[in-house]
Design brief:
Layout (H helix, E strand, L loop, with lengths): L7 E4 L4 H13 L4 E5 L15 E3 L5 H8 L4 E4 L14 H19 L3 E5 L10 H14 L5 E4 L4 E2 L7 H6 L11 E2 H14 L5 E3 L2 H9 L3
Helix pairs in contact: 1-6, 2-3, 3-4, 6-7
Length: about 220
């Protein structure tokens, strides 16, 4: 049963997963979705059609809290890739820092659900990327706000392309749950979890993630 009157705040709305989620949410008309947009992107063709936008830098904590008030769920979809390091992004700033800012604002704004997009492997992190994801998960778990963490395997869709060898390997029964997830499937799960406000305080990975994909009809 859907929890009534859910209102979503989507951080990372302009990324590949965020764009897919926004398209699905707006095509369905529910629940109400507030897309976080950085000021430098506010006039872009991508975000112009979105009816509800929170145009604010996450570092502006007071404004962020005010824009977040009335939202029930914060979806943290922000992350970076090594190829963006040249423009100033780091795992510390993009994955950990933004999560910290969103968690603090969510606590002050009265949000009752945090949904974090993480990555498969964050439970036993090896390397800087997964260690950053693990730290973001810790911030969410320690927030005092009920949470759901989604750990997808490799993405496919848009500019995400899957190595044919990986695709073949994940057809084998022992690796079935590591098969690539399409962005449409991932967005559908994120929306379902947010609408249902469930499962709470759980990590969706492997069997549990694919069960949610099936439940979302994606």
């Amino acid at each position: 049963m859907n929890t009534p009157s859910r209102h979503l705040f989507v951080a990372g709305a302009t990324g590949a997963t965020g764009r897919t989620l926004m398209r699905q949410a707006l095509s369905r008309g529910a629940p109400p979705v507030l897309a976080h947009v950085r000021p430098k992107s506010a006039d872009s063709d991508l975000v112009r059609p979105w009816p509800h936008k929170a145009v604010v830098e996450l570092s502006d904590g007071e404004t962020l809290v005010e824009m977040m008030r009335g939202c029930t769920t914060v979806l943290q979809l922000i992350g970076t890739m090594r190829k963006r390091f040249g423009s100033g992004d780091t795992y510390e700033s993009s994955d950990i820092g933004t999560t910290r800012q969103l968690v603090e604002a969510a606590k002050r704004a009265g949000v009752d659900h945090l949904v974090l997009l993480s990555s498969v492997g964050a439970g036993r992190p090896v390397g800087a990327y997964l260690k950053a994801k693990a730290e973001a998960e810790r911030l969410v778990r320690d927030s005092g706000i009920p949470w759901t963490v989604v750990r997808p395997p490799a993405f496919e869709g848009e500019y995400h392309h899957i190595n044919p060898v990986l695709r073949a390997l994940t057809r084998l029964p022992p690796l079935r749950n590591m098969r690539p997830i399409h962005l449409d499937q991932l967005a559908a799960v994120l929306l379902r979890v947010s609408e249902q406000r469930a499962p709470l305080n759980q990590v969706l990975e492997g069997d549990t993630l694919w069960a949610e994909v099936a439940a979302a009809g994606a």
